[in-house]
Design goal:
The chain is of the alpha/beta class and about 350 residues long. The model has no long low-confidence stretch (mean pLDDT about 90). It has 13 helices and 12 strands. It is globular. It has 2 domains: about 240 residues, P-loop containing nucleotide triphosphate hydrolases (Rossmann fold, 3-Layer(aba) Sandwich), CATH 3.40.50.300; about 90 residues, Hypothetical Protein Yjia, Chain: A,domain 2 (2-Layer Sandwich), CATH 3.30.1220. Strand 6, helix 9 and strand 7 form a beta-alpha-beta unit. Helices cover about 35% and strands about 25% of the residues. It binds guanosine-5'-triphosphate (GTP). The site of guanosine-5'-triphosphate has 22 residues, from helix 1 and strand 10. Pfam families: cobW (PF02492), CobW_C (PF07683).
């Protein structure tokens, strides 16, 4: 095949760090580059795909946005990612650049390693791995776990071979980065930002470049065209899991759970959002997002909660043939009391 390899950028980062927001921005300032987007989300509600399809960029049409919904991309590489890439590469009109948004819970390492599969390696190269960081969450200590508590849990249950799953995942995503974007800098002050930089630097032995952003506003010229060829270096970026299980024991996401709550129309949207805030705090929900059918309003209300912070805005009108509904995806640690969270949300309708 006499074609240049297509560059592919992998965008990773913990739940709610701002990956979709950054990609939305990227699509609008990527110049004439035709971009194909592969999106993977944890939870059965395609919120990210919906948000990105709604941005109407000519260089990335709805057809160019592919959602992988069969679980976290790092665990479904062979069944999901490789066939998707193969199909994409068979298209008559090949993209200039491929952007892959991993789920917030994915380990980027297995995905990068997949670029060494024979059929893929000859046609595509990893331009770079970009890890988006929620600076406010780092500043609030979200990823710095109470090691005594973790040790106590491990003492009770010897089968626990992990440190805190959130902390570990955060480090794995940093370890794989070629570029780290410290996002949400609007939510912290200058001194906080210095501490965040120090903490992020201390979590990875490699020293990738760090840049700062608000609302994922980083120019396409910085994000695309890193030219790293990360697949050649994946052996130097092993995740905790790979280091602990050199024998290839399968990785899973048992520590996290997600479920969808469906409700009818909501009369008092402000009261609803306030009540969600209390439920999130009471049950330590990590991420909640979706759309609300507000009674009497022609527009759809989008909800985006990351930890205790909740954003909500009317994002677009409901379509004429679209079924109006309130649908929210909730993500938390496995020990989150799903039944209680579901019941509390359902009681709000
Ligand atoms: N204040 C502030 N909010 C931001 C910033 N970037 C993103 N957000 C908000 O953070 C929330 C989550 O952003 P997303 O872009 O959906 O995050 P994500 O990483 O794609 O989330 P998952 O795919 O669920 O892991 C949304 O409400 C965004 O509007 C920022 O720089 N500052």
């Amino acid at each position: 095949m006499n074609q240049q390899k297509i560059p592919a950028t992998v965008i990773t980062g913990f739940l709610g760090a701002g990956k979709t927001t950054m990609i939305r921005n990227l699509l609008t300032n990527a110049g004439g580059k035709k971009i194909a987007l592969i999106i993977n989300e944890f939870g059965d509600l395609g919120v990210d795909g919906d948000v990105l399809k709604g941005c109407g960029a000519d260089n990335c049409t709805e057809d160019d946005i592919i959602e992988l919904t069969n679980g976290c991309i790092c665990c479904t590489v062979a069944d999901d990612f490789i066939p998707t890439m193969t199909k994409l590469l068979e298209r008559e009109q090949r993209p200039d650049h491929i952007v892959i948004e991993t789920s917030g819970l994915a380990l980027p390492q297995p995905l990068v390693a997949a670029f060494n599969w024979p059929d893929i390696r000859t046609q595509v190269t990893v331009d770079g791995v970009i890890t988006v960081v929620d600076s406010a969450a780092v500043a609030a200590g979200r990823f710095a776990d109470d090691h005594d508590a973790v040790d106590a849990r491990r003492a009770e249950d010897e089968s626990l071979d992990h440190e805190s799953p959130i902390e570990e995942l955060f480090e794995d995503q940093l370890t794989c980065a070629d570029l780290i974007v410290l996002n949400k800098t609007d939510l912290i002050d200058a001194a906080g930002l210095i501490r965040v930089r120090d903490e992020v630097a201390s979590r990875t032995v490699r020293k990738p470049v760090m840049i700062e952003s608000r609302n994922g506003e980083v120019s396409a010229g910085i994000l695309l065209g890193l030219g790293i060829g990360t697949e050649d270096d994946v052996a130097n970026r092993k995740s905790h899991h790979e280091l602990e299980h050199e024998d290839g024991a399968p990785h899973d996401h048992d520590e996290f759970d997600s479920f969808v709550v469906e409700l009818g129309p909501i009369a008092d949207s402000i009261g609803f959002v306030e009540a969600l805030k209390s439920i999130i705090a009471a049950h330590d929900v990590l991420r909640l997002k979706g759309f609300v059918d507000v009674s009497g309003k022609p527009m759809r209300l989008q909800i985006q909660a990351v930890g205790s912070r909740i954003d909500h805005y009317f994002d677009r009108a409901w379509g004429a043939s679209e079924k109006r509904a309130t649908r929210l995806v909730v993500i938390g640690l496995h020990e989150m009391d799903q039944d209680a969270v579901r019941a509390a949300i359902e009681a709000l309708a």
